[in-house]
Amino acid sequence: MADQKTKEKYAELALRTGVNLQKNQALMINAPIEGADFTRIVARKAYELGAKDVHINWADDELTLLKYENAPDEVIEDFPEWRVKLYESYAEDGAAVLSIRSTNPDLLKDIDSSRVAMANKASAQAMKNFRQYTMNDRITWSIISIPTGDWAQKVFPDKSRENAVASLWDAIVKIVRVDQADPIAAWDAHNETLKTAREILNRKKYTKLIYKAPGTDLEIGLPQGHIWKGGSAVSEQGTTFNPNMPTEEVFSLPHKYHVNGTVASTKPLNYGGSLIDNFSLTFKDGKVVDYKAEQGEETLKHLLETDEGASRLGEVALVPHESPVSQSGLIFYNTLFDENASCHIALGKAYPTNLEGGAAMDDQELDKHGVNDSLTHVDFMIGSENLDIDGVLEDGTTEAVFRNGTWALNVKGD
Description:
By secondary structure, the protein is of the alpha+beta class. It has two domains: about 5-175, Thermophilic metalloprotease-like (3-Layer(aba) Sandwich), CATH 3.40.1830; about 185-405, no CATH class. About 35% of the residues lie in helices and about 25% in strands. The protein has 14 helices and 20 strands. The strands form four sheets. Strands 5, 6, 11, 12, 13, 14, 18, 19 and 20 form a nine-stranded antiparallel beta sheet that branches. The chain has a five-stranded antiparallel beta sheet with strand order 7-10-15-16-17, with helices on one face. Strands 2-1-3-4 form a four-stranded parallel beta sheet, with helices on both faces. Helix 1 crosses helix 2 (about 35-50), helix 6 (about 115-125) runs parallel beside helix 11 (about 295-305) and helix 8 crosses helix 9. The protein starts with a helix and ends in a 7-residue tail after the last strand.
């Protein structure tokens, strides 16, 4: 179980390395009500670092479930304008945004998936302008997690609630390097490792990646001028921050029209409180033309039908199988963690910053370059110790990028 000192170190890491809070900057925190004690630690430290304002948006799983069970459709499909204005006003003011994601993975398993899809789409449409601030790095933002009871018991089903929470704290603390003497220095070193990997890939300028694994035979075309990113990012104001903690990935964007073949998932996907598991997608000219799932197929159908871009890819990410998340041996049922155990791809919107000059392009220009647009962006895991990836160079030659789930390239710069 994480003691007070450990939680203080984690809070400081989230503020200094995660959002890199600046003096006289406002901070908005999205947090679960069950994590109020930790959130208060973050707020206090934020003020100590010079924050001019700390605003908390509380979430409560039980109240969320009650709403889905009882509210009429017209309420479910309405995203209040005041909430949009709240987020946009903080973004316009240059606030940092810290999200603590700790939802029960099974929260909405008994709710009609069409109602969940309705709410997700309404939220995505209403928050489209705000999302431009994060996906274009116009502000600093970061996502972390802390244990909550229901989530912990999903990860550790054979333990009591108290012991499950303690075990999940232990796992998270280790994975985000808070167990080290100086977590901030450890993250600085980790970011340098990821920087080396992305620089090597950027020099390669692959035209496509070819994936082979059980159930997977997929070719992903990469747009000319694509950029690999990973680890820390830099905001429009020049502030370095870490969008995801943990993060073990380097990522870029696929060409929205040049994806062909079939890909199989290797870990469950927790999508808005519903699980999709053991699923596969078949692509033709970038678009999903067939799909199946052992669990959550109806939820997957609604996800793919969110809009035209939801059935195309917006991200391709490389993660070695020996990452700390993978080595924990745990399935977290939380994409923030599970995506950092495994190579993954994402359905939906691409990050414009993954294309040279992309952040300054309008929608038509981005489309011309093969950059996907959508209301949604959903990562799912396709990596394992059986995954091989080849990269095709500009002259048509092919070389190994991954073998048996790990780097075949020398990304450590030895």
